[in-house]
Amino acid sequence: MDSQSNPSTRPVSDVMIRFDRVVKKFGDNVVLRDLSFEVEPGEFVTLIGPSGSGKTTILRLLMTLERVNGGTIQVGEEYLSHMEKNGKLVPADEKHLRKVRRRIGMVFQQFNLFPNMKVLQNITEAPIRVLGQSRDEAEEKARSLLEMVGLSDKIDAHPSQLSGGQQQRVAIARALAMEPEVLLLDEVTSALDPELVAGVLAVLREIAETTDITFLCVTHEMQFARDVSDRVMMFDRGQIIEDAKPDKLFTDPDHERTREFLHAVLDRA
Ligand SMILES: Nc1ncnc2c1ncn2[C@@H]1O[C@H](COP(=O)(O)OP(=O)(O)OP(=O)(O)O)[C@@H](O)[C@H]1O
């Protein structure tokens, strides 16, 4: 068996995210069935698939908002559900979970900004409280991030004074301020008016191209997925049925379900 086909024998330094035979159930509903996949450091991987197939569940497991019912998840060399103690794997405690969680940022469909804080404070709050940065350091970083997302002039605005697209760009800046190694994107444009989508996608594209952050992205924006992803995984009924480079998957998929899904999505667009 080559090392590619057996995730558990590959050196961990090659892998930023590893799901190894993960099972996730909600009651009798088995959402993920022995799911295994890996994402390399710096890769941009997109998950596509029908509604309800378990894509968001994958991201929520990585954020430790859900727990696995079987199998293991690793971020870099660290397990989410377990930690190493005296050479043995034991169940993770809260401190360990916080440490792993800190490596991961997430941007949601709903921007979830703090409504009572101005844009600047929305971005500096967590770096000051969680990373222990000084206010000056956090504000300097926030200013450069706001420039990156094209919102330098909104630094003193409140979220309610911004468009949805601008709020989402603040949410992206806020996630980046925590210096994540992994950024999870969950349908980040689906709550936006169509004319605001391009601005948000352009920002994400720039971040993907100019940083070494590892991305795991769930989206229905097929053109974006095709342009930005290193790999696209087609997900159906709790399993990856196809995992390929975007040009291959979008033009010549191997699996009939992928073909049907792409037709359905592109017909709707
Ligand atoms: N907290 C929960 N309790 C019970 N069932 C849940 C919960 N979260 C998700 N599910 C179920 O798990 C399945 C997968 O949901 P998930 O949100 O991961 O799918 P998805 O592929 O992201 O779908 P969509 O594209 O519609 O967001 C669905 O059947 C859903 O009803």
Automatic annotation (TrEMBL):
Topology relative to the membrane: Peripheral membrane protein
GO terms assigned for molecular function: ABC-type amino acid transporter activity; ATP binding; ATP hydrolysis activity
Domain ABC transporter: start-end pairs: 17-262
One Pfam entry name: ABC_tran
Keyword Transmembrane helix included in the entry's annotation: no
Chief location category: membrane
Sequence intervals crossing the membrane: none
Keyword entries, A-Z: Amino-acid transport, ATP-binding, Cell membrane, Membrane, Nucleotide-binding, Transport
Keyword ATP-binding included in the entry's annotation: yes
Protein's cellular compartments: Cell membrane
The organism's place on the tree of life at top rank: Bacteria
A single Gene Ontology CC term: plasma membrane
Record-linked InterPro entries: AAA+_ATPase (IPR003593), ABC_ATPase_HisP-typ (IPR030679), ABC_transporter-like_ATP-bd (IPR003439), ABC_transporter-like_CS (IPR017871), Ectoine_EhuA (IPR014343), MetN_ABC_transporter-like (IPR050086), P-loop_NTPase (IPR027417)
PANTHER family: AMINO ACID IMPORT ATP-BINDING PROTEIN (PTHR43166), GLUTAMATE_ASPARTATE IMPORT ATP-BINDING PROTEIN GLTL (PTHR43166:SF9)
Family: Belongs to the ABC transporter superfamily.
Protein name from the UniProt record: Ectoine/hydroxyectoine ABC transporter, ATP-binding protein
Species: Saccharomonospora glauca K62
Lineage: Bacteria, Bacillati, Actinomycetota, Actinomycetes, Pseudonocardiales
